[in-house]
Amino acid sequence: MLYLIAEIFEFEGLANLIRYQTFRSGAALMTALFIGLVIGPRFIAMLRVRQGKGQPIREDGPQTHLAKRGTPTMGGLMILTSLLLSMLIWMDLTNPFVWACMAVTAGFGVIGFLDDYDKVRKSSHKGVSGRVRLLMEFVVAGIAAWIIVSQISTNLYVPFLSGYYIPLGPFYYVFAAFVMVGAGNAVNLTDGLDGLATMPVVIAAGAYAVFAYLAGRADYSEYLGIPYVPGAGELAIFCAGIMGAGLAFLWFNAPPAAVFMGDTGSLALGGALGAIAVASHHEIVLLIVGGLFVIETASVIIQVFFFKRTGKRVFRMAPIHHHFEQLGWPESTVVIRFWIISIVLAVIGLSTLKLR
Known about the structure:
With 356 residues, this protein is an all-alpha fold. Helix content is 66%, strand content 2%. It has one domain (2-282).
């Protein structure tokens, strides 16, 4: 909104900074952080009153988690509120990428909210049917994919290889939707410990802020040998907003958590990362930058696959963060070590910019 005002009235001097994506990225981060910190206490109090017993805790999960009974969920509403308000203030609202990413974030957030609401209402860890939820996610992701692909090519660019791509044609729409849905559910599976999913999302968003900004610059993209995507630089502001909103939520989600983000937040944030990866033509790199989410998802797939065929478990408990808890690692140890892994993976992902 402020960007459009600056364009219309042709601001000069310090006010002209509003036109720069780097300035608006920093401003979006601070705005989302400020809004999140301000509304956090009231949001948590409201959720605690309305939910009563809070998020249902699995009886078959780690016994240490039983002490978390009564902690309210749906904290993702705090994240979405601070993020979307910050975006409306600082982003160029004429950019189609902005609306596509906001649609995925809000759409997945609504789906997650319905799932969380069902769990709280039934006092059960079982929410909306998995098939129904996936169908809704693919509908939202499909619409976003249609908006994004109208602005970019249908080529799948391969990292580490300059100028090499796989032309997917119409199949790219399906691929793009799959990336968004897959990212949303991967973050959702990771969200099992206090702060475990939040910080890796912030780290991944920071990496993609760099990817998006460079992809949106013709000079930098040519120098680095990455695909040039006009308008993608605006998504650096979106990434910064995710970072600010995520850090604000982490203030209240730090152990012992005063609130859980729930599916409302995890699905929305994961879907947002997937949409940004598609729009910036850095889809494959998401497997590296978001490698922790991939590991968590793979652990569940491996566990289910082998248990159904052999009756034996590969891990003591899945997702894999519970496996380490069962090995005796304190929750804070698991969380911090997984954060470190996320930082290393993000650095490796960023290195693909020059390894071409």
